[in-house]
Amino acid sequence: MAVMRMMGARVKRAEDPRLITGQATYVDDVRLVDLLYAVVARSPIAHGRIKRIDTAAARAAPGVVAVYTAQDLRFAGPLPNAWSLSGVHISRSDPLCTDKVRMVGDPIALVVAESRYAARDAADLIDADYEELPAVVDVERALEPGAPTIWDNAPGNQAYRVEVGDKGETDAAFRKAHTTVSLRLVNQRLIPNPMETRGVVAQWEPGPQQLTVWSSSQLSHLLRTNLAAILELPEHRVRVIVPEVGGGFGCKLNVYGEEALVARASMLLKRPVKWIEDRRESFTATIHGRGQVDYVELAVDAAGKILGLRCKIIADLGAYARINTEVVPTLSNLVLSGSYDIPAIYSELIAAYTTLPPTDAYRGAGRPEGVHLVERIVDAAAREIGMDPAEFRRTNFVAKDKFPFTTKTGVTYDSGDYEPALDLALEMADYPRLREAQRRINAGGQKLMGIGLTSYIELSGFSPSGAGGGIGWESSTVRFEPSGKVTVLTGISPHGQGQETTFAQIVGDELGVPFDDIVVVHGDTARVPYGMGTYGSRGTAVGGGALMKATDRVREKAKRIAAHLLEASAEDILFDQGRLSVKGAPDRVVTIQEVALTAYLRADKLPQEIEPGLEATATFEPTNFTWPFGTYIAVVEIDRETGDVTLQRLIAVDDCGRIISPLLVAGQVHGGAVQGIGQALYEGAQFDENGQLLTGTLMDYALPLAAGLPRFELGHTETPSPVNPLGVKGIGEAGTIAATPAVANAVVDALAHLGVKDIDMPITSEKVWRILQGGTTQ
Amino acid sequence: MERSIEMTVNGARGHREVEPRLLLVHFLRDTLGLTGTHIGCDTSQCGACTVAVDGEIVKSCTVFAVQADGADVLTVEGLAKDDQLHPLQAGFWEEHGLQCGFCTPGMLMAAWGLLKHHPNPDEATIREGLGGNLCRCTGYEHIVNAVQHAAQRHRPEHYGVEGDTAARVVREAERYGLESGAAAGGTRLADRAEREG
């Protein structure tokens, strides 16, 4: 009987039975005896000195157990900023503000009570006085002379300035250009909004001196290391459990003040404490994404060859540097060559503080901004010289024989073959006929059609430790139990990505074990060896690398045991789908399950030189990032009368290297693309001049809904990555990176005849309507 | 201060003393320990808390527990019968209709309400019908597929709870002197039910 290989097959997820029956445990589902509830009181103003916080009424409220302000709680220092760039001003936040607030939503007090409702009631009784200071809500104004100072040690509000590429070379390329184009692009702030907000439960056990923290996080071990340091506890006295996590998208890739606050409260009160962020709170207390103003120019010759790219990136860091706040904009610099062989690149990146919530990693984290500016200016150049945008891209692609390709921004693409992905997308779109239809429709009538392309690259598989702050590697343990069941431990922290399934597929094939006999465990520092968590499309690319190494070691040991049992040499043992046989003697065979049983419970049969047990732990350090790529084509229709933009088609051709789970890859592309479409058409944080968030609830901040989206058209090319054992590249962020500029390019394409070169995102019907009425084009 | 309410939840009837302001979702989650129903927002936008009250779906963050006094409530935990997944649950599993799973209980219940009234919906009806529920992971397409999967296996008994939520919610709101969004929503539901006969 043929055994189906699991890798590459359409597999139903191992995670789902508990999730579809309501039996999963998210952090708010953790129930403990004597549990207390915490609510954080927050600043209603964006910028000011704290004059007085009166907690007396809150302390006296029914059910209240404790109220803490900054002076009541001892921490070793402010919250961590793991990847601080040299030269960056100190702008770390304390778990509770001490003397100043720098954003609406800054935490000023913690109320702990016997119930959720009592804690919330009491938090409303906290009375704080501030000496109000002017808010700084516009990143370009923050850098102007005379702007209010947010950090005393950062006069002028500049956090840092870095240059990438060669300015002289790039200026020279612009001097000899046939045509140059320029754009100012606002990459607006986004609010990540995973459907589950953040939440923490902490339980201090005074007897064993043990702190257990449940947190809705993308990290477990790094959170534990940092919490131990902040709380001045020995690290081995801290256990972090990441339970089921209801989405993260980067915003849970951090160490937040509430994690330290709730833990400290539990230690002081000797009772477990729970804090669950409410949605309104989440809009400011959790990080934001994006937030750049980008000035970009492209120089091309008469044949449409790109000669140089020059840009100035102004990044809005917000009020504080959280873990990745400063790093994220620098990732934009790394993707500025896009899919193109650009002979000269220069970028100046200036990062500045504002009195807004910190920006940090949000799906794509810096790469969407970089790819957006490249793909938008490429379209502008093609239009300027009258070349089809598809042909312009093809003309400038990095040639297939140039990989590994080192860009002028100093990074090296692992592998790539960009034309087949473009060709497939054009074929799926039936591009020539689509353009013909566009000409017909736009010639008159009620509608305008626009076609937008993006040929993206991204850097994924975070990361070689040398490029990732020393922490890019990943771990895995593969353990046979005596009964032949397999437990896999992984240091990644999936929260929807589905590696309980993907990793079981891999182990099933590699060890010849049925899918249902494999359980993948993650997110508990007491069970899983040290690992880095899930972010930057690294789960399968890096975590899978560690898994493959551990699996190889288990198989090799099984071969040695089988060789002994079968009285053959290990080199003569054939391993085929869980059966170990002697080369040339297929009837001399043992199963991997028999080997496992022997390894544990018949150790008397093992020779002296083989240790009992059948498990292996491995770590994997990638040699480079992976570089997924592809081409997206968006087709939009605009109603000339109302300005309504309808996304009619989205063709998504992704090359994410080898595909393990096609169904899960499709899910990642869909979800990623919709977040990208969200940025283009719906989402955007809006503040008033006082730093108040005007889009502070889900009534005011528009997230994409099921209606209004087309059925997506997916295609793939498969170019294996040479930098990990599986040849995978990662697919978690591709859709988000590619869809935004594809949709924006499509809208500009529809309106180009009116002289439109850009339109601020989110592209609402009102903005389009104003343009159609002859108003402003920017 | 506390009031005694009686409720049937997933077929089990019981009574509890509750604060009048206790939300139905907190009653289900904290009082009864049925944590399958989730809370994703505070403004009734996200739909993660969707349950059926007397056979009509409501957002349980917008209903007080006292308004559901006497009601028959169905939550995600009550969908599977005798260890047999409900066709919607099977559809979500088969079609990869979930990733992080947080919106899923609400999506399942919203889809339950949709298929109850529209056993054979076209794609646009499904997408409109899920308009009160947000998912941030899937991009919705696989959710649409999951609902279609369930619709193809439709049997009325999979959607059978008798009652009339709309009228009940309005009645209970009046009884307790409450003005709530749910009451307004209930009125709309009642209007719609009347229109559709």
What does this structure look like?
The complex is a heterodimer of chains A (778) and B (197). Helices cover 28% and strands 23% of the residues of chain A. Chain A is an alpha+beta fold and 778 residues long. Chain A has three domains: 18-133 and 195-247 and 252-285, Aldehyde Oxidoreductase, domain 3, CATH 3.90.1170; 292-460 and 625-772, Aldehyde oxidase/xanthine dehydrogenase, molybdopterin binding domain (Aldehyde Oxidoreductase, domain 4, 2-Layer Sandwich), CATH 3.30.365.10; 464-620, Aldehyde Oxidoreductase, domain 4, CATH 3.30.365. In chain A, the strands form seven sheets. Chain A has a seven-stranded mixed sheet, with helices on both faces. Chain A has a five-stranded mixed sheet with strand order 7-15-14-13-8, sandwiched between helices. A four-stranded mixed sheet of chain A has the order 18-26-27-28, sandwiched between helices. In chain A, helix 9 links the parallel strand 14 and strand 15. In chain A, helix 9 runs parallel beside helix 10, helix 12 packs across helix 13 and helix 14 (499-511) runs parallel beside helix 15 (539-565). The longest helix of chain A is centred in the C-terminal third of the chain and has 27 residues, at 539-565. Chain B is an alpha+beta fold and 197 residues long. Chain B folds into two domains: 3-78 and 162-178, Beta-grasp domain (Ubiquitin-like (UB roll), Roll); 87-159, DNA polymerase, domain 1. Chain B contains seven helices and five strands; from the N terminus they run ββαβββαααααα. Chain B has helices at residues 24-31, 87-94, 104-117, 123-129, 141-151, 165-175, 181-196; strands spanning 3-9, 12-18, 50-53, 56-59, 72-74. In chain B, strands 2-1-5-3-4 form a five-stranded mixed sheet, with helices on both faces. Residues 179-197 of chain B have low confidence and may be disordered. At the A-B interface, helix 1 and helix 17 of A face helix 1, helix 2, helix 3, helix 4 and helix 5 of B.
